Amino acid sequence: MDLILWRHAEAHVIREGQNDLERALTTKGERQAQRMAEWLNQRLAESTRILVSPALRAQQTAQALERPFKTVAALAPDGGVEALLKAVRWPDATEPVLVVGHQPTLGLTAGRVMTGSEIYWPIKKSAVWWLRHRLRGDAPQVVLQAVQGPDLL
User: Fold this and answer.
1) Cα–Cα distance between 44 and 2 in angstroms, integer?
2) How many CA atoms within 13 Å lie on the side-chain side of 35?
3) CATH number of the CATH domain containing 11
4) How many domains does the chain have?
5) What are the pLDDT digits (tens) for 3-39?
6) Rounded-to-integer distance, Cα 11 and Cα 44, Å
7) Rounded to 10 degrees, what is the CA torsion of 16, 107, 128, 24?
8) Domain boundaries, position 23
9) Which residue from 4, 14, 112 is spatially nearest to 62, judged by alpha carbons?
């Protein structure tokens, strides 16, 4: 199973009276999302399931892919690692899954699936971490396939 974690692109700072879920991407964030979407579209299988946080900034990031996606409430900023892993059906899903979400959940998820421990790894805005679960003989392994940030595209 491939699990692709994509942190939403740069968003505006929350304004007084604004709900965190309403924060939109900045102009820089729109460019970041577009660059990363182009990179991803060259690599993602057609069968990739795309799951996205209900937050506007995550929705706008995912829209740059120009592919259908499903909004999943459990991926909201206050969601956790367990909810994310359940939503993607880790490690048993048969298709690749791309998650567009938030820190700290994405970094904690990467730490958990790579090490089995509660390790927090920072993931930059609009960066992608591509993880692959596989079996070698009877032994499960998680391989870090790629880490890509928008500033290197």
Assistant:
1) 10
2) 18
3) 3.40.50.1240
4) 1
5) 999 999 999 999 998 899 999 999 999 999 999 999 9
6) 25
7) -10
8) 2-152
9) 4
